[in-house]
Design goal:
heterotrimer; A alpha+beta (354); B mainly alpha (191); C mainly alpha (181); A: 354 residues; alpha+beta; 2 domains; 7-stranded mixed beta sheet; 12 helices; 11 strands; 43% helix; B: 191 residues; mainly alpha; Rna Polymerase Sigma Factor, Chain: A; Arc Repressor Mutant, subunit A; 9 helices
Chain lengths: 354, 191, 181
């Protein structure tokens, strides 16, 4: 048990070390009223690096030599040297951004991202909507909203500084308790989603050859059983699975023997979707006109910001959207003149009648 | 040749007024024919000037044309005509503020005096009427003059005069008493 | 006095009987009609313009349609502005992020990653990582510290049976399957 624990701790520390080696990236989308977007990427080396080279594999958000790129050295508040790479490009429409995502060869190339822009004429105002969406990795996963309530969800998706605001605010006791209760709920969500994903993948792979007891619906009915088995055997899951013991317990010996390959393929697919090596970054959006709605977080200059973490789009699409409005003053004038015209006509009629 | 003065009749035909309201200028011409003589009578007796009286009559008729919608009865029409005429006479009289004591030359007065004594029933010419009224009402205020003209010369009732001038009945009595007294003094002095 | 009164009455009667001679009735008629026509003409031009612009007022369905359109326009404006104001108000009530802390969201690792690593650690695609000797030394030092602290903690718990019982009970209640003592 002790060696197991040690192993886990070392792996987590290693992950920490690895994650500390990737640049801190912020992508800013400056949306213009005509639908063009100026995209700026700023990558900062981790603090304390005496020397740093930005690699293609580091790029959380893709850019290439068609962008205008600038490198510089800055001193952080702690006095450390920070290497900064800035890239900027004007995209005439979101379609160009989406093409860039499709050709992505960077570290996050396995996720499906796209951007959308909408301009709606609403007479008195024109409403602009910009969205960056990341498609979910799991097809059969559960939405997090089935495990966390509304407040817990808001807390989950919030950046750390906002979490601190909540935890120091008027409902601080409630939000401080979220940390612990959320962890167990998130574990449940993950476990159920993993099992559900495996069921979905496996049943699809064996569809043509398997009997009714291995159909998607049949396996789905037994999902809680599988979740329980996984939870009980969490410690030794890896070895139990490799030896086929786990699989026999789940689908019977005969099926386990026959469909071991498919079961392993399914579990590999599930693992690939976990994105444990996903490189996090943040997205900022600047909208034309006055901001009226968003699911993001604003800073003191009303620039919007979203964190992008793998948890956020594991089972559901992650949308970062903002809406703004620009007043159509000419429409106000035309409407005013029209109403005045009608009113004047009515007054004249009343006067003549009287 | 001296034209006989026409005694105006009180307009009782509301139908004519209603026809005029529709913009019928021909019907309105008829209304002018019926109304202008007694409007002229009041205006002339108030101002003593034929031209001024004609102007007053014109303005009155134009005003009537513009506000025909407000007339609901023949009686109302009569009161209204008089009211407009009297008010326009007041305006005119205010313009000519200074009222020097009228003096006619001696020959003219002798002729008038003889005329009255010899032919007491003969009708006066406009100029004579104007002169006499001017002399007799020289000391009167516009209100007193209006009350005198409407009561003693136009022979209207106190109710009618009250409606036209807006003065109360007791006020009319008082004004009339004073007017008559003043005129008596003038009669004694000049005639 | 009596003669005076007689004279007074005679004068008044004379004046009363002598109604002013109105010998220009036709002139007045003509001039009144002329004045009215002139006024009508000038009013007609204005009236024509007014009728041209506002003639629709006398056509029932046009009038009703335009009134309805005006009412709908005003109502739409009020609703739209109300919605926007409500949205903006809601946004301004949201907590504001501190820019200096907005740069990095990387919190190192989350608890659930530990669970995933336990389950699928061996199945992760192998990758090469480069760390410096200094980082390696720090890492090993952290591991040693953790191991020491862990040993001390376990010793404390084992020396106090009541504490052990209490902890096991709490862990069972919270269903913390990630780490079992």
């Amino acid at each position: 048990m002790k060696s197991e624990l040690t192993k886990i701790i070392i792996m987590m520390l290693l992950m920490f070390v690895v994650s500390c080696d990737e640049p801190d990236t912020v992508v800013t989308n400056i949306v213009h009223a005509d639908g063009s977007i100026t995209r700026k990427i700023e990558m900062r080396s981790p603090d304390g690096k005496s020397e740093y080279r930005f690699k293609t594999s580091d790029l959380q958000v893709p850019f290439d030599n068609t962008w205008s790129v600038r490198d510089s050295l800055e001193i952080s508040p702690k006095g450390d040297t920070v290497w900064v790479k800035r890239a900027e490009k004007l995209f005439l429409s979101v379609d160009e951004i989406n093409m860039t995502y499709q050709k992505d060869s960077g570290t996050n190339k396995n996720i499906s991202r796209n951007a959308g822009f909408e301009k709606r004429f609403r007479w008195f105002n024109t409403v602009y909507r910009f969205v960056e969406k990341i498609d979910p990795k799991m097809e059969f996963g559960y939405p997090l909203s089935e495990f966390l309530n509304k407040e817990e969800l808001v807390f989950f998706y919030s950046p750390e500084s906002i979490k601190e605001v909540y935890q120091n605010g008027p409902d601080s006791a409630k939000f401080r308790s979220f940390g612990d209760s959320q962890d167990s709920k998130i574990d449940k969500w993950l476990t159920k989603s993993l099992v559900s994903e495996w069921i979905g993948r496996f049943s699809y792979l064996v569809k043509s050859e398997a009997t009714e007891d291995l159909s998607y619906n049949s396996l789905k009915i037994r999902e809680d059983e599988f979740v329980d088995a996984l939870s009980r055997n969490e410690k030794n899951f890896d070895s139990l699975w490799t030896n086929g013991i786990m699989l026999r317990e789940m689908i019977g010996e005969k099926n386990a023997l026959k469909f071991k390959t498919e079961a392993d393929s399914a579990i590999n697919m599930v693992t690939n979707n976990l994105l444990l090596d996903f490189k996090e970054y943040s997205v900022r959006i600047v909208m034309p006109g006055k901001l009226i709605n968003t699911n993001g977080y604003k800073d003191s200059s009303s620039v919007l910001l979203w964190p992008v973490k793998s948890d956020f789009f594991l089972t559901e699409p992650y949308e970062m959207w903002a809406e703004s409005k620009v007043t159509n003053f000419w429409a106000w004038i035309v409407s005013g003149v029209f109403i005045l015209f009608v009113f004047t006509g009515l007054v004249i009629r009343i006067k003549r009648k009287g | 040749m001296r034209l006989k003065s026409v005694t105006p009749t009180i307009l009782t035909d509301l139908k004519l007024i209603e026809e005029c309201r529709g913009g019928n200028l021909e019907k309105f011409r008829k209304l002018v024919q019926m109304t202008s003589p007694f409007a002229f009578s009041v205006a002339f007796r108030m101002l003593g000037d034929e031209d001024l009286a004609k102007d007053i009559v014109q303005e009155t008729m134009v005003t009537i044309w513009q506000k025909l919608n407000k007339i609901k009865s023949a009686e109302a029409y009569k009161t209204w005509i008089y009211r407009i005429v009297i008010n326009k006479c007041y305006d005119q009289m205010r313009k000519k503020k200074s009222n020097p004591e009228f003096t006619a030359d001696e020959n003219t007065w002798r002729l008038i005096s003889d005329r009255i004594s010899v032919e007491p029933s003969a009708e006066l010419e406009n100029s004579e009427t104007a002169m006499i009224i001017k002399v007799l009402t020289n000391k009167l205020s516009p209100k007193q003059k209006a009350v005198f003209v409407l009561s003693d010369l136009e022979q209207m009732s106190q109710d009618e005069i009250s409606e036209i001038t807006g003065i109360s009945k007791s006020g009319i009595k008082a004004n009339l008493h004073y007017a008559r007294k003043s005129i008596s003094v003038m009669v004694e002095k000049y005639l | 006095m009596g003669k005076n009164s007689e004279n007074h009455n005679r004068i008044i009667n004379l004046l009363r009987a002598s109604r002013p001679i109105f010998n220009s009735a036709s002139d007045i008629e003509r001039e009144v009609i002329q004045k009215i026509s002139q006024k009508n003409r000038s009013e007609t031009v204005l009236s024509d313009i007014t009728d041209f612009l506002f003639g629709w007022v006398y056509i029932g369905w046009v009038r009703r349609s335009l009134i309805t359109a005006s009412v709908v326009l005003v109502a739409y404006f009020v609703w739209q502005q109300g919605t926007i104001i409500r949205q903006i108000k809601y946004l301004s009530s949201q907590p504001v992020m501190i820019e200096s802390e907005s740069r990095s969201f990387q919190t190192g690792f989350s608890g659930n990653k530990a669970m995933l690593l336990k389950l699928f650690g061996n199945k992760l695609p192998t990758q090469n990582i480069t760390i410096s000797k200094e980082q390696m030394d720090n890492l090993l030092e952290s591991v040693n510290d953790l191991q020491t602290q862990y040993r001390e903690l376990i010793k404390l718990i084992e020396e106090d049976p009541e504490l052990k019982k209490y902890l096991e009970k709490k862990l069972t209640e919270m269903n913390r399957t990630r780490i079992k003592l």
